[in-house]
Amino acid sequence: MAGDKLRIRFRKRGDLRFLSHHDLMRAFERMLRRAELPFRSSSGFHPKPRVVFALSLPLGVIGLDEAVEIELTEEIPPEEVLERLRSQAPAGLEFVSARRIPPNATGQVVRAVYRLPVPPDRLADLAERCSALLARDEISVQRTHPHPKRVDIRPYVLGARTTEDSLLLDLRVTPTGSARADELIELLDLSDLVDAGAVLERITLELHDEQAVTEPLAV
């Protein structure tokens, strides 16, 4: 069928970081309708817009490089789609870019980078802990869903290092699994910062068919 498919990059921050993934999907549906965009719908008794997010964002985490793919029933210039969505977007949701992709293309996430602000007095010791963590052959964590089990997340950890004010975590994402930022934050004894109000950010979301935005992190 003739139509159009766009990959859109957007940011989700401010109070919207507390919006669940399910609620975000409903917000996108409302925006598409209000922007009068001719979106393609799924079949069945309860049709929904054919909107696919590359990777759901954990509740409370800011997303600065998120990706969503939207199917339309007719071709519309990507910039026009952006402008229409921007006119309907709530505060905290920012549409950054849009580009046309082949109808059968689907972006598969291969890498995600997270940033956590860290007080200056914790950085020196943290750099040493990052080095020790990456030196391990196995990083075992306990997971409870869908059932309790121990998981080795070392194959998914590409890097962990400090900057002048933050911790950066570089994680590999595969169809069969990945590491979670909160797991590494706990292993690095930083969970208290999150409990005290430090906000985790996902700053890079790399797809398999796009050039890397940043090089993999080193220690």
Classify the oligomer: single chain
Any idea what the shape is? elongated
State the helical fraction: 10-25%
Distance between the termini: 49 Å
The profile of the biggest β sheet is: 9 strands, mixed
Order of helices and strands: EHEEHEEHEEEEEHHE
Structural classification: alpha+beta
Tell me what the structure shows.
There is one protein chain. The protein has 219 residues and is α+β, with helices and mostly antiparallel strands. The chain folds into 2 domains: 4-100, Alpha-Beta Plaits (2-Layer Sandwich), CATH 3.30.70; 109-207. The protein contains 5 helices and 11 strands. The longest helix has 15 residues, at 120-134.
Give the SSE map.
Blueprint: E1 4-12, H1 21-34, E2 51-53, E3 62-72, H2 78-88, E4 93-100, E5 109-117, H3 120-134, E6 140-143, E7 149-152, E8 157-162, E9 166-174, E10 177-178, H4 181-187, H5 191-195, E11 201-207
Parallel strand pairs: 3-11
Antiparallel strand pairs: 1-3, 1-4, 2-3, 5-9, 5-11, 6-7, 8-9, 9-10
